[in-house]
Design brief:
Elements lengths: L23 E5 L2 E4 L1 H14 L5 E5 L2 E7 L2 E5 L3 E9 L4 E8 L3 H18 L2
Antiparallel strand pairs: 1-2, 3-4, 4-5, 5-6, 6-7
Helix pairs in contact: 1-2
């Protein structure tokens, strides 16, 4: 672990604080439009409740929750999507998706995928 519990490294450097974007982009016809960052943060929080690690990065209208080197969940604020399988016939990945309105259910699906991947690589 490069940084200790107090947030300082062995060299005395302080770990940078995360920069948070606004939670809501705008309102359209009385309905809040969730930004990609906010949707990713909601998913990351739900994954954390399930003891699944996740790091959020965002930009250009999209955000990603990096769960592991081979499991990244993308979002545009309306839906989440991630690689579910490899299709050897078509020579490309098959993606699973879930609506961003249900981050708890999406997190359970991502957590199940993460558990399958970990079992396969042990």
């Amino acid at each position: 672990m490069p940084f200790g519990r107090d947030g300082h490294s062995a060299h005395g450097l302080r770990h940078p604080e995360p920069v948070y974007a606004p939670t809501l982009a705008c309102t359209a016809k009385g309905r809040d439009i969730v930004t990609a960052f906010h949707a990713a943060e909601r998913l990351r929080a739900e994954l954390a409740r399930l003891q699944v690690p996740g790091v959020v990065n965002h930009g250009y209208g999209y955000a990603v929750v990096s769960v592991s080197a081979s499991l990244t969940v993308w979002t545009d604020g309306r839906r989440y999507w991630w690689r579910a399988a490899w299709n050897p016939v078509r020579g490309r990945y098959v993606y699973a998706w879930h609506t961003a309105d249900e981050p708890d259910r999406a997190a359970r699906r991502v957590a199940a995928r993460y558990a399958r991947m970990r079992r396969r690589h042990q």
